[in-house]
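Teaching note: in complex prediction, the entire set of molecules is handled at once rather than each chain in isolation. The prompt given to students was simply: 'Predict the structure of this complex.' The entities are:
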Amino acid sequence: MQSVENKSTVIQGEKPPGIEGAGFFATSLEKVVGMARKNSIWPLPFATSCCGIEFMATMAAHYDIGRFGAERMSFSPRQADLLMVMGTIAKKMGPVLRQVYEQMAEPRWVLSVGACASSGGIFDTYSVLQGIDRIIPVDVYVPGCPPRPEQILDGVLKIQHLVETESLRRRDSPEYKAMLNRYGIE
Amino acid sequence: MEVSSQERVIALLQENYGGEILHVETPYNFLTVTLRKEKIVEIVRFLYDHTELQYQYLTSIGAVHYPDVKQMAVVYQLHALVANQRLRLKIYLSDENPITQTLTPIFSGANWMERETFDFYGVIFEGHPNLKRILNVDDMIIFPLRKEYPLEDQTREDKNDTMFGR
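The expected output is the structure of the full assembly:
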């Protein structure tokens, strides 16, 4: 049977720089851990409103967030890596979101999807929290009202980049602790 | 709503509680009766128990704040399911001290509706089993839907007022 040449331009996983030999591959631990973590993120979909529906579309077969490794959604914060806040967060919901964030184990990332989660969006009112970054630290913001699934996937790809390039000692560093202190999180 | 049944309701109310009626009108063909606030519970109980009227469904309770005349109106919307007729009752309270009686002995649904009216306007319903905030944060000190409070969140520093029309 003739072999079929792969003419696709999609990169099927790049090898980190390292020393290769017969049956072994030596590289730095950070790179391997980063690669493993980024391709197996377990997201926690904290979907509140319309952005949650766009997330459902992103999870479905057409846009498929599962191809990036985020196949298994965790609704328990103890087992989740990425907190995806999608939708309007009311001031009454603030302490709940904060409790969910505090229950997540390190390393954890936060993706703020949509205008309401990022800044209160169109709802500049007495009842809506004007951006979740008033109560928890956020890594990536995805603007949009609602953002298209492609945009949400772009946000996930940026999170993946952060996950891949993060130093293993970052969560113990004084700068990170100082940042958490600013939010009042121990 | 048919005109003859509206007239029937007005006639029955005039007969039994004529002294309490302040004003009757039908905006958009919806019978609206403005009453004195003292006997509102009695009147609602009369409308509930009456064999012909049977206003046994409380659709909603709301309030309107009129700061220019220093009044707070509480609006009750009732529905008679068998005859398919609707009725709106309005009572006016002073806006410094808006106190009235609760409808919870007649309608269990009034429980949450009165809590919502308290939460947003500060109307006190005497006799209510659990009058505390329901939709807003528990430690909120203001009553947001009163006219003196602006809609926008006041803690934002980054929005340019001229561009956002505040």
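Point out the following to students. The two ends of chain B are 42 Å apart (CA to CA). Strands of chain B lie at 21-25, 32-35, 57-66, 71-80, 85-94, 99-101, 124-126.
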